[in-house]
Design goal:
Largest sheet: 2 strands, parallel
Number of strands: 2
Strand content: 15-25%
Strand order of the largest sheet: 1-2
Distance between the termini: 10 Å
Helix content: 40-55%
């Protein structure tokens, strides 16, 4: 089965994380892997169950999942896999 691509998860906006991402993507082994432009961000409410079952607390996660799903569908429909 062919790899469809890589999705970054639990992403924050930090210089350190951007540097790690750049270093990782510059490795020869990663050159042939497509990387999704969509990603998931850190959502502490989900990780620690702080919000219970209140759906509005998980808006960021829903938006992240929706963006990844749409990008996946575009790749599949465009036969870019």
């Amino acid at each position: 089965m062919k790899c469809i691509g890589l999705v970054y998860t639990m992403v924050t906006s930090s210089v350190k994380q951007e540097k790690l991402k750049t270093n990782f993507e510059n490795k020869k082994a990663v050159n042939d892997i497509d990387i999704f432009s969509s990603k998931t961000s850190v959502v502490n409410n989900i990780q620690y169950g702080v919000a219970g079952s209140i759906p509005t607390k998980y808006l960021a996660s829903r938006e992240d999942i929706e963006a990844i799903s749409l990008e996946l569908l575009e790749r599949l429909e465009g036969n870019n896999v």
